[in-house]
Amino acid sequence: MGFWDQLTDLLSQHEADPVVYLLIFFAFCVLATIILPIPIEIMLVVNPSVPFPLKAIVMGLGKGAGAFAVFYIGSALEGALKMSRWGWFKWLLDKSEVFVRRFGTIALYAIMSIPFMIDTIPLYLFSILNKEGHFMTLREFTMANILAGVNRALLVYMLFFVLGAKHLFS
Predict the structure, then answer these.
(1) What domain range includes position 108?
(2) pTM of this prediction?
(3) If pLDDT is split at 50, 70 and 90, which confidence band does 101 have?
(4) Total domain count, the chain
């Protein structure tokens, strides 16, 4: 059984208890932000009995909680990464830095709002670029991720609605 199957099965086992279901979903949203390279939005359709707006808010809060941790983890990892040795990584970091310098928190919000994107790497890049709070505060970093998480959920909902699969959410 693959990871997706296990995750879906775990969430499906707790469909009858919305509180436990949402706690597990929240935990996976936090983990997806910090370490799991998965687009967690797919899990928004697992339990149609839990109201979609509630799942969207939980996803946003999970993304925000994960971003809170990444804010500190990323800055602590900066020296250990030795990015200058990785040509493509240094190029990506340089381009991201230009984007962040120009647009600040809005740049983070925009990137983190892209549905189905694995957000772990960009978040760490932003946290490394944010040395000592030069680009954004912890509050801005966290709030941008909470709002982007809710936004991602809404964009996924709209996509499914346009594709005629709105029934998966209700």
Answers:
(1) 3-169
(2) 0.79
(3) confident
(4) 1
